[in-house]
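User: Sequence in, structure out. Go.
Assistant: Echoing your sequence, followed by the structure tokens.
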Amino acid sequence: MTKLTQKIDLFTQRRLERFVDDFRSKSGQLPTLKDLADNSFDGELVDRALKEGLIEKFYVTLTNGTVLKGYKVKR
């Protein structure tokens, strides 16, 4: 594991951005933390990406009333 103070390398940054964009275009939903973790983006990496401003966190309400955290690429 790396420290939270280290920057995300360019390869991982591009891979994360592409995954979030592809997930949204395929399913029409924002990926959740579980979706990111299933694709090898752990919570620490997501926290660093949020801190660096690569992605944004949103609270998404589903039609059944469930509230989830969704992530979107910040442009």
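User: And one key feature?
Assistant: Residues 10-27 form the longest helix (18 residues).
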